[in-house]
Structures are given as structure tokens and as C-alpha cells.
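User: Okay, second chain of the day. Same drill as before: sequence in, C-alpha cells out.
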Amino acid sequence: MKVGIAGLGAIGLRVAQELDRGGIPGCTLAGIATRNAARAADANATLNTPAPVYALHEIARQCDVVIETLPPTLFLDLARPTIEAGKTLVVLTASQLLGQQALIDRAAETGATIAIPSGAILGLDAIKGAAEGEITSAVIETRKPVAGLIKAPYVQENGIDLTGLTEPMQIIAGPVVDIARHFPANVNVAVAVSLAGIGPEKTRMEVWADPSVTRNLHTVRVTSDSSDFTMSIQNRPSDENPATGKITALSVIAWLRQQTATLRVGT
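Assistant: Same drill. C-alpha cells below.
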């Protein structure tokens, strides 16, 4: 399986290095894509075998699978040509799928596949299973260190004073689809949870500023006719980018392994 990677930040570079060393049986690194030629050169310098460099609109033609780890503004520049080529698009910026039903419909026409790996969240298997029955409530609560929210546009625009905060404060709450408008860079995990379950209109999200936490803490609570469960995850930051959890890149590697594995665990 020929794999391309668009975006060479903490996630993309880690996956590229794993592919380069032959760590994912049945998969090869077929190309990389980035806006910055210097970033591509720096990435290739860390690989045993430098990968061909393509433009975002070109890489799908060279690959079976394209992994997207881009800034939100570049998502469609990659997604549209990948879908048109009938390839598999692995999406890390899940928030950019909101309002893109036409893109999903086009994938059905071209034979393309859109996949969302677990990323920085947990429990998607359980949510998908519960959704085969009836989910009556799905809530994702995200607690962030005060420093991670104090400069957020929504906080500043609404005059929310987090200076000297000593107790947790709820910043915003509502359907995921609404929260995404105010925190577009912070809802990828919530969108994944919502798409696995009852959708972004019915899945509720709460964002808290919490002086007691040092890393982002996500808690998912689901009530359904088959099971009720609560799950929490607090990710360790990657060395390359403190804003990206180590587990995000590892979840992509695990997804790739599962595509060619004889024994597959989980849905």
C-alpha cells in the first residue's frame, strides 16, 4: 500500500519516519506534500530514503492512501483532488468535515474512502457500537490549562477574564456543530466523537478552563440502550509540538497497521 503524507508537523513526520524504516508491514512511503520546500527538505533529511515531494493536488495520483495533517485552511486543497482520484483520505483535521456533505457524497461516487483515526481521543469503538442501538446522550467535556485558553479569540472577544482563576470555569457549552464555530482549532476530538455516534448536532461539548490541569483532559460520557460509559484521556505532548499529543501520530500508525494485518482488533 503506497502511503502519502500531507503536512510534516509532529504527526506527519513521525508517521513518515515509521514508514521509512519499514515499521509498518505492507506499507511504503510514496510521497510527501507541504507548502514549505524547506520543511520538506528538513523532513527528508531525517529519512533513510528521501521521499518524492508533490504539491497537495498531485500527491493522490501517486498514492493509495493520503494522510492529512494540514492547517484547516488547506484541507480542501488536498481533500478534493484525493476524493476525485478515488483514493483513501485519512483525516486528522476532522473539524473540516463539518458542512462537507457534498465532499462525502462525491467520495461515494468516485469510490474514495474518508477515514478518521482515533487521534487524541478514545472510545470510538464503543461509541460506534452503541450507535447501532440508541444513544440517548453523548457529551464530551474538554478541560484545558488556563494558559491554553486565555488568548483564545472567543475568550478575548467575549471579555472572559481568566486572570488569577482558582477554580474551574465553563467557557462555553452546546452542540459540537456550534462550538466548532468558536473553537475551530480545538474540536477535532469532539467531531470524531460526534461522527462515531449521534452526530455533531446532538453531541454536546463543554469547554472548561481548569487551573488544576497541566494538559488537555477530555472526558466522554455516553448513555445508551446497550451501555452507559465514561472515559477520560489526558495526552502527553509530543516533543516536536507541545500542542499535539504523542498518541495522535501513534493512532495513525496503528490505523495503517490494521489495514494490512491478518489479525485485526476492534472495529
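The two ends are 20 Å apart (CA to CA).

User: Thanks, on to the next one.
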